[in-house]
Fold each of these.
Amino acid sequence: MAVRLGKLCSDGLDIWLRMQMAHDLWQAKRDLAETVKQIPTLHAA
């Protein structure tokens, strides 16, 4: 889809892939926020 949108809009596929990745990451952070809070953080000694 990114290739097609990039061609249609003549701005290349990279921007479409970056926008999709940013959206996916935003959604995952929002959807998994409570689960991620329960994961302990390791600290270097």
Note: Residues 13-31 form the longest helix (19 residues).
Amino acid sequence: MGKVAAKIKVMPNSPDVDLDALQERLEGALPEGAKINGVEREDVAFGLVALFPTVVVPDDAGGTDPVEEAFSEIEGVESVSVENTGRI
């Protein structure tokens, strides 16, 4: 069984969202077997900063769908999208 790494773009719903707290909520919402292997931040516009966690999931875990769903339900998240994926 292999593993898949996915870089996921998480957009906060406001520039006022505490990014450190949001990052902690993302880590706490991960489905079983998934882990975050680093988080990048990128300025988007008008003070808005996107988080780009790299999430590692088992190959047989249904892909990134469970992670995307979990992230989408977190308070302060506007949108979630997979930027790229690859096997590791």
Note: The domain at 3-87 is CATH 3.30.70.60 (Alpha-Beta Plaits).
Amino acid sequence: MEDKALTQAIIGAAIEVHKALGPGLLESAYETCLGAELNALGIPFKRQVPLPIRYRNEQLDCGYRLDFVVYNRVVIELKSVDQISPIHRAQLLSYLRLSGHSIGLLINFNVTRLTDGVTRLVQDYAKP
């Protein structure tokens, strides 16, 4: 599956979750339901993927987790906040850099129309 088609499929799955649940719930509810939706679509993913940090040639577990990694290519960061702020984008960009993935979706479920809560970020980082 090409990257654009893959991100469109992920966004479509998130829209289905949002249609069913609406805004105002905890991020964990959307995460669980998005996992179920991706499963139903046959889209392979991993949830809560550990993200160690390499510091001074040592790999350290600092407790970071990627909400989803889809097809081992797309990092999804979920939010349920009043609005996406620059720190949320910076967080996803850092996750992309640290993981070596180049495509990220920042999805905020706390919006009236989910398409208003989706940000697609693309970076060209070499794997660490």
Note: The longest strand covers residues 45-50.
Amino acid sequence: MDEGLERTVAANKAVIGIVMGSASDMSVMSKATEVLIDLGIRYELKVSSAHRLPELTAEYAKTARDRGIEVIIAGAGMAAHLAGAIAANTTLPVVGVPIKSGELNGIDALLSTVQMPSGIPVATVAINGAANGAFLAASILSIKYPEIKEGLDAYRLKTKNILLEKSEEMEK
């Protein structure tokens, strides 16, 4: 296979896995899918609970690399062990998205996601920060895929120009 084609993200396979603890998390995790669609990055979606479906969650993580997944974004609320359970079963980068829910409004999810033992890292974004989870996953992939780097650069330039325009309008 041609080296350029093999390294092209648009080679019709998902390179990012998005996993959420329940279908109700889609309202938050859809922000990640929007970013990935805008950047032209293929992804797969899965609902799997670290507590209710532990074997399925472990199997998803163990087989992700074989399916071509290179980064996993995991979003969950409450005790939020999903990202950690995935990270325990793969050496792929895992980005955790704590989801606001329950009596503690996501603080429990944040702490469960960020407080991982040494050797089982989970990069963690803000509560309900699924968009930044996608941007972080894209940044990781931009090391390998120049077209993702170009997409990220274009996004940042676009947001910079929007802010400059608004600033100029306010000064008038």
Note: Residues 1-7 have pLDDT under 50 and may be disordered.
